[in-house]
Amino acid sequence: MAEASGKKENIISVPQAWIRLSLLELIARRRASISGISLYRPQADYPRLREFLKENFERIMEFIKHLPKQDIKISIKEAELRPAQNDDREHYIAANFFLKIRGNSVSAKGSAGRNFRGTSLLRRGSEIKRPEAGVPLRFVFKGVLADSGISIENLELMRENLYAKFWGDSAGNILSLNGFGFANTFFTGRDGYARAAFNIAGRLKDALAGRAAPRYPAIDLSKVNLYVLDINCRINLLLPRLRIERLSFSLNNNPVSVQGSILFSRPVGIGLAVSSNQAESGKAPVENLKKVDLRLQGILENSAFTGNGMLSLDFIKKKKASPPLERLKLGFKGLSVNPSGYPRLKLSLKGLSLFCLTESNIYRMFLDGMNALVYLQNEKSKFIEFNSKLYGGSVNGWGRVDLDTFPPRVSSAVRFRGVDANKLEGLLVHLSKVYGRMYGQAYFSSYPRLILNGGMVVENGYLRDFEFFKWLSETFSLPSLRKIDFTKLSSNFTVNDEGAGLHELKLNSQDVNLSGYFRLGADDLVSSKLSLSLSRELLKESPKFAPLLRLAADPGPASLAFNFQLSGVLDAMNFQWLSSDFKKDVQDAIPGFIERKIERSVEDLIESVQ
Q1: Structural element, H or E, at residue 548
Q2: Can you give the pLDDT at residue 293?
Q3: What is the 3-state composition of the chain as percent helix, strand, coil, each rounded to the nearest 5?
């Protein structure tokens, strides 16, 4: 009993109950021996019943162990498990249960599923239909009692979209199980509306004809898209703590192992470590995926989860036509998942860190205060919308996961606004020298091939000691190039299984302009053409350029263009000075051997900086 709204409420109420006694035992031995118990339409406050069972589990188990050894049948029909008190929702859990003990043999069967009260109706067209009850989960159990526990010979779970079978034993606090299961996660039920009311005449006709009551059909294995094989688990029930000492299985031919514990307190504490070593199977579904690790720690209260965790993906050394990733790691703090608005799931993060290791670089990024909505109503695809703070600016976007193939197809779009460009040095080291507010967008797709592309713009900023211009400044005595104020710096980018590149690269400033592209392909081979324009006023600072300016046409344009090409391996690029008006003017004014000497000097200077 417990106080609720100023009055006492029962955890369980039983409108009707039947007890069967053995007449033979009563007459011959003058002992009342119960042979059967039947409860009709019992009702229970599910949250409070759960707490009662949790707090008294060990005492209940001891009571069951010390019951007199006798045959008995127990049935519970049309039980209702109500949701939380003061919850005006119309649905509840309907359950049926039957238990039979004969000697040391134990068998049981039953079902449980969502149902609706009589006042809950839906309109479809001109008809008013009752919402269909949820497809129930049925179970069948068979076992043998022993002094130390129970041997589980067979435990089957069945639904129209699910079949699972287990066997094992329970001894003391240890539960050991083996088994397998199949599921069709795209199952959508029958038609979403209730069937006709119970037909007594039809059932009587079936019974007279010797036909059994209709049962749910077995799962159609041709439509299975999720199969769990080779289940092997050992669980230590040290209630209120449940410790998973060993849980391994194969999920769609991918080996998975789980360890951790669950503390059934208020709130419930969860600490789990999930790992999938793709290399062990020899048949990784993603060509170069090696291992997946998930660590999760937090609390579960009122169906909402709050906690911290980490997801790590390790990749096999890159193969032909595969991205050069070695490791991708996501760390999240203050994760909050609230399913109260299901099928729209609310998710928030206080912090999300991204770590990416490639064969040659490390990339890092940190999101602050991320919020997201995950839409789960579509069986074959899941959609997410998100927004977050990012280095003085903001980022928002969407993502989609299509589940009708394995591995799932992933696509997403991200837009960022007003981000401090130099704070993104963890993604691209050269951005540490770029100052200004960045705007842009990026698009990602894993099908039909992995590709990331997008564009970015930095407005009204400056470059400080940018490596290329720093080299020009030191080589040609142009101190103004150490800090370049610009009105706009922009570029598009592409990353795919063939490499990465910047294209439509443009820098606009008063004295310096740059345009062109830069690509990095397989085996770090560079392909690039750039056009650099420097004002005459800037070039006059250089004692090395002054003689060349006198050779060029004068008066001429206010800026002089230098076109050049980069090629070869990234760590040892080849430099080639391409044709330009300035180069043509110099060539026309000086002998060829001097021009070639100047070009070689420029190339030597380029190479000396590599």
Answers
A1: helix 546-551
A2: 92
A3: 15, 55, 25
The count of other CB atoms within 10 Å of the CB of residue 416 is: 21
d(CA 65, CA 122): 48
Q: Cβ distance 494 to 513 under 8 Å? A: no
Token pair listed for 512: 């310096």
Coil, helix or strand at residue 271: strand
Q: Do the Cβ atoms of 46 and 83 come closer than 8 Å?
A: yes
Distances (CA, A) of 280 to 159, 257, 392: 32, 12, 44
52 vs 490, residue with greater confidence = 490
CB crowding 143-160: b at 16 or more within 10 Å, else e: bebeeebbbbeebbbbbb
Using alpha carbons, list the distances in angstroms from residue 392 to 89, 388, 395.
Answer: 44, 11, 10
What sign does the CA torsion over 510, 512, 517, 520 have? Answer: negative
Residues with Cβ within 8 Å of 314's Cβ and at least 6 positions away in sequence, in order, are: 289, 290, 291, 292, 293, 326, 327
Read off the pLDDT of residues 25-69 as tens digits, 9 standing for 90 and up.
Answer: 666 666 667 788 899 888 888 777 777 776 776 677 666 666 666
User: Token digits for 439?
Assistant: 């705007």
In sequence order, the 6+-apart residues with CB closer than 8 A to the CB of 570 are: 520, 524, 525, 526
Name residue 135's amino acid.
V
Q: Kindly report the backbone phi and psi dihedral angles of residue 95, in degrees, each rounded to the nearest multiple of 5, phi listed first.
A: -140, 150
Q: Please give the Cα distance from 29 to 24 (Å, whole number).
A: 8
Task: Please tell me the distance from the alpha carbon of residue 602 to that of residue 194, in angstroms, as a whole number.
Answer: 83
Structure tokens of 131?
């919402």
Q: How far apart are CA 45 and CA 32, in angstroms?
A: 32
DSSP category for residue 216: P
Backbone angles phi, psi at 481, to 5 degrees: -80, -5
Residue 565, both tokens: 């090409």
The answer to whether residues 364 and 353 touch, using CB atoms and an 8 Å cutoff, is: yes
Spell out the residues 6+ positions from residue 466 whose beta carbon is closer than 8 angstroms to its own.
Answer: 430, 433, 434, 484
* Contact between residue 494 and residue 501 where contact means Cβ atoms under 8 Å apart: yes
For residue 214, cis peptide bond before it (omega within 30 degrees of 0): no
Residues 6+ apart with CB under 8 A from 315: 288, 289, 290, 325, 326, 327, 328
Q: Which helix (H) or strand (E) holds 294?
A: strand 289-301
Scan for tokens 């359950």, then name that residue.
Answer: 95
Contact (Cβ atoms closer than 8 angstroms) between residue 479 and residue 516? no
d(CA 431, CA 487): 16
Q: Please indicate whether residue 185 or residue 49 has the higher confidence score (pLDDT).
A: 49
**Identity of residue 559:** S
Which parts of 66-128 fold into alpha helices (H)? none
Cα(435)–Cα(457) distance, rounded to whole angstroms?
Answer: 12
Closest CA to 490 of 535, 530, 440: 440
How does pLDDT run across 280-315, given as a tens digit for each residue?
A: 555 544 456 788 899 999 998 877 899 999 998 887
